[in-house]
Amino acid sequence: MTTTIDITSDFICPWCWIGHTNLKAALALAGQPHVQQRFLPFELNPGMPPEGLNRQAYRTAKFGNWARSQSMDEDVTQAGKQIGLDFHYDRITHTPNTRLAHKLIAYAQLQGDSDKSERLFEALFVAYFSHGHNIGDPAVLADLAAAQGLDTQAALAYLHSDTADTLLDAALEQAHAAHLNSVPSLLIGNHRIVGAQSAESMAAILVKLNHHE
């Protein structure tokens, strides 16, 4: 029987990238490399303008001063380095609105290729955190879609469709109804894991859940 893991995240959440990397390691440790992963949306900044905001100005307003934001970024960079992830906050000038990115991963999943969807999911984090690309820009998203072999014209058409908006809003409402207020959040069966747990702790949970099936 295939295990399904619902992964709720936002693409500007560094711990979501760290958490997913740890999950992959946990699946290998637990001897469950093949699971069905479903990627579900969450908006850390639901009020973000469609065009996004200057990151330094936004983070300074959010945390009171830029130095505090830089200190938090450094903590994340070091945590990422421990598991082989490259965070380059010096390249990020823009905090994007992530609605289009969420629609793109939804489009990819609708195509039915789970491996391609997972690669795109990771590519969105790499584009933002490693390269500083604006993942709220349709042109950037089109390039990421093309890199995974998706039909870019169809993907772009989907991003601007009423259907995409309707499905995204419904998925965001489901997260709200589940009382999710932070990400990453994993749902394995009826067991929810919140936060970027270590690979070892997640592997232990996976093994325990597997034995209880």
Automatic annotation (TrEMBL):
InterPro entries named among the record's database cross-references: DSBA-like_thioredoxin_dom (IPR001853), Thioredoxin-like_sf (IPR036249)
Residue span, DSBA-like thioredoxin domain: 4-205
Source domain of life: Bacteria
Name the UniProt record assigns to this protein: DsbA family oxidoreductase
Source lineage: Bacteria, Pseudomonadati, Pseudomonadota, Betaproteobacteria, Burkholderiales
